[in-house]
Amino acid sequence: MKYSALKGVHDIYPPDIYIWQKVESAAEEVFSAYGFHELRVPIIESTDIFVRSIGETTDIVEKEMYTFPDKADRSITLRPEGTAPVVRSYVENHFYNLPSPQKFYYSGPMFRYERPQKGRFRQFYQIGAEAFGASEPKLDAEILSMLKLFFERLDITGLTFEVNSIGCEKCRPDYKKALSDFFSKKTSELCPDCKRRHINNPLRILDCKVDSCIELRKGAPQVTDYLCTECREHFNGLLSFLKLLNITHKINPNMVRGLDYYTRTTFEVTSEHLGAQKAVAAGGRYDRLVEEFGGPPTPAIGFAIGMERLITMIKDRNKKEIEQAPKAFLATIGSRADIEGLSIAEKLRADGIQVELGYGNASLKSQLRRADKLGANYVFIIGDDELKSGIIKWKNLKDSSQGEIGIKEVSGFQGFYNQQK
Ligand code: ATP
Ligand code: MG
Known about the structure:
Layout: H1 16-33, E1 37-38, E2 44-46, H2 47-54, H3 59-64, E3 66-69, E4 75-78, H4 83-92, E5 102-111, E6 123-132, H5 137-153, E7 159-165, H6 172-184, H7 192-200, H8 211-216, H9 229-244, E8 249-251, E9 263-271, E10 279-285, H10 289-292, E11 300-306, H11 307-317, E12 328-332, H12 335-350, E13 355-357, H13 364-374, E14 378-382, H14 384-389, E15 391-396, E16 402-406, H15 414-418
Parallel strand pairs: 1-5, 7-8, 12-13, 12-14
Antiparallel strand pairs: 2-4, 3-4, 5-6, 6-11, 7-9, 9-10, 10-11, 14-15, 15-16
Helix pairs in contact: 1-5, 1-11, 5-9
This protein binds adenosine-5'-triphosphate (ATP) and magnesium ion.
Residues 81, 112, 114, 119-121, 124, 126, 258, 277, 279-282, 304, 306, 308-309 line the site of adenosine-5'-triphosphate.
């Protein structure tokens, strides 16, 4: 019997895992500087939570959710995104009683039943952040600035920040009407999904990925022409903060995003290195969602970064940085040396030095070969003679220098501390 992982899901293992860890710690570092705290929310939630927030007529809810009854016949969904669970948690735990704004970040797997392809999986990972309790565009600009700093920290280049405002419950109905009128002359040419969208939620037509629909929306009315005074001021405010913070950006009036809960600011970060699935991060404001979840009126904004797409960009750029080699390899000959080697290794490990040992009575030659394969910096060789004299030989595998050191002094070995990690 042979088993394999399900379609569209994947294992993450060395050496890639080191990039994942690097990205996760960069996020933690940068987001903490902006006052975000980690929040861990469950992977499963009540189905309603996603249907109500993301919207019944969105692709995610219509086609992509992993929804199933549990043993007590409750409808459960594997989270397709992180914002709805975070908002649920914000309301349930009364975080709105804490001083505003409250800011949280999360990371972990999301699940969407999509057609697997490059940059698109059924279980994929996101790192996201959500800030609650401030409506001014200064916060929107800070969020974008935080994302920019995060990508800079990872030396990612070739990104475009696209921004838009999709208005509020006051002005959006006018825009929806204008869109609906625009497409009513073309309904017969729309794809079957968009025919439905035209009736239920015309905004979603702008998010359709079918080529003929992309063609048909040329010349469609633009949301930025329909904003009410408050939304226009908010958007102008954002644009001037972005200028102040030197965040180069492009206004994309067609970017409505695939989730219904957004209000005003929406944004996407796209990469010239990614091909068809080029969005590496996306987000927006959702000023009504907390209230819809039963909390007090609380404006909020957030985003999510697609981990797989980000990791691909880092991997394509530089394969070298994903190495993670041990600092020391202790090659031992004979059972007494084996025991001594183990106790030296344990001391070094307690000092945080990564150490590998020989196993299975391997010959010195094969141990050295393994040390080389692992990319170890130093090899220490311990045999009967060394145990007798108390002096062991070391060799630097990178520059071939060598020397001797007292068996008791290994933990103070300068080589571990001189070299860069
Ligand atoms: P797309 O237009 O690519 O389908 P989306 O609008 O559905 O993206 P969001 O829900 O905004 O995506 O998720 C934020 C980010 O998560 C995306 O920009 C992308 O990087 C990543 N992402 C979304 N769906 C997937 C997936 N199925 N596999 C891998 N990454 C994904
Ligand atoms: Mg999608």
